[in-house]
Amino acid sequence: MRDVTGRPLARDAMAYVLAGGRGSRLKELTDNRAKPAVYFGGVSRIVDFALSNAINSGIRRIGVATQYKAHSLIRHMQRAWNFMRPERNESFDILPASQRISELHWYEGTADAVFQNIDIIESYAPRYMVILAGDHIYKMDYELMLQQHVNSGADVTIGCLVVPKKDATGFGVMAVDKSNVITAFVEKPADPPTIPGDPAHALASMGIYVFETKFLFEQLRRDAEDPTSTRDFGGDIIPYIVKHGKAVAHRFTDSCIRAAEEIEEYWRDVGTLDAYFEANLDLTDTVPKLNMYDRDWPIWTDQIVAAPAKFVHDEDGRRGQAISSLISQDCIVSGALAKRSLLFTGVKMGSWSSVDEAVILPYCNIGRGARLSRVILDTGVRIPEGLVVGEDPVLDAQRFRRTESGVCLINKAMIKRLEG
């Protein structure tokens, strides 16, 4: 569907990305950065997925609300997303919690993060608002969701996933009728409502909402006057509209982007260390569940100017090689082995070292003879020569952050303690 001028609806929309969350379940990975700023996939940050979806969908006005430890996120967006041009009727606004409404108020919730910037949004006069979470991994065409929103006459359209009922307890869950009109919206229910005709599955919110801008502002202003509100979309705004207006569910299957070889609709909340680890390793499969090589739907990010990756030495036991791995720019694999791993920018591996199922964030240095398996190394970690991780669960748990599935997170502070 197009508007009366013949333009796609996305051209009259603004994407507003909520990127202020800490992501505390990622433990030390978010000690110094917000969850959307966490590295992912060898070259990207988590926030790049929502932003790339918006650009690829045709949306040319974007705002990003930041709050928790936002410096690395803001720096990344300034470097990677500064190509928007006002003369082309494009805009990209970074909106920290700057206490613009009151000197006492930071963003109190997801809805408040939009409410506090109403004047900035109004200056662009978008007809539609696409509210996005900035901390999920997926590819989606928001134009298709906008079309459903307009065609259905909804007050709000909510992006949703079909999930097994037993997995829905951690989400906002929708009860719907046969026309996908939402009849109830409950946060993290113990007994989730199921899909009509499918008692084994439920509809879980993706944290994606489409509104007409005027209607959204009316709801935000109403909510701001309610002293009992928590200023949250899922907790306050959406349940009110479900009760007093028309809310419609949009299924991810109707707008997900899949390259020819992708066999499933890929969406991941990488909010735990295990989920983050597995989603990164998904990319190392021969036919990955998420295709980062899809030129028709690229994931835009900061393009660092750096030397190509290099592999050196060719002796038995000391051969620079990588198997089923992603190796980024400025990496040097010197007589070492990387197997089913991701080496982000600037990683150096010393001779006789090896990594197996490893997510190595930028500018780490792995000493000679070290053996690492099922690890996440935070940025800038220097692994001592001969260190072994992943072979002694008890010792690993004493020295590092070890998950129930045996993934070890290692940061610089842990190595400093180890070295005394």
From TrEMBL:
| Top class in the EC scheme | transferase
Fetch the Gene3D superfamilies from UniProt: Hexapeptide repeat proteins, Spore Coat Polysaccharide Biosynthesis Protein SpsA, Chain A
An annotated Gene Ontology molecular function: glucose-1-phosphate adenylyltransferase activity
Residues annotated as domain Nucleotidyl transferase: 16-285
Its pathway, per UniProt, is:
Glycan biosynthesis; glycogen biosynthesis
- Superkingdom is Bacteria
Against PROSITE patterns, the record matches this protein to: ADP_GLC_PYROPHOSPH_1, ADP_GLC_PYROPHOSPH_2, ADP_GLC_PYROPHOSPH_3
* Residue stretches making up the Glucose-1-phosphate adenylyltransferase/Bifunctional protein GlmU-like C-terminal hexapeptide domain: 307-410
List the catalysed reactions.
alpha-D-glucose 1-phosphate + ATP + H(+) = ADP-alpha-D-glucose + diphosphate
Its EC number is: 2.7.7.27
Annotated residues for binding of alpha-D-glucose 1-phosphate: 107, 172, 187-188, 205
CDD domains per the record? Answer: ADP_Glucose_PP, LbH_G1P_AT_C
| Site residues, Could play a key role in the communication between the regulatory and the substrate sites | 67, 106
Which key words are in the record?
A: ATP-binding, Carbohydrate metabolism, Glycogen biosynthesis, Glycogen metabolism, Nucleotide-binding, Nucleotidyltransferase, Transferase
GO BP, sorted A to Z: glycogen biosynthetic process
- Where are the annotated coiled coils located? none
Q: Which family does it belong to?
A: Belongs to the bacterial/plant glucose-1-phosphate adenylyltransferase family.
Q: How does it assemble?
A: Homotetramer.
Listed NCBIfam families: glgC, PRK00725.1, PRK00844.1
Protein purpose: Involved in the biosynthesis of ADP-glucose, a building block required for the elongation reactions to produce glycogen. Catalyzes the reaction between ATP and alpha-D-glucose 1-phosphate (G1P) to produce pyrophosphate and ADP-Glc.
What name goes with this protein?
Answer: Glucose-1-phosphate adenylyltransferase
Naturally occurring in which organism (per UniProt): Novosphingobium piscinae
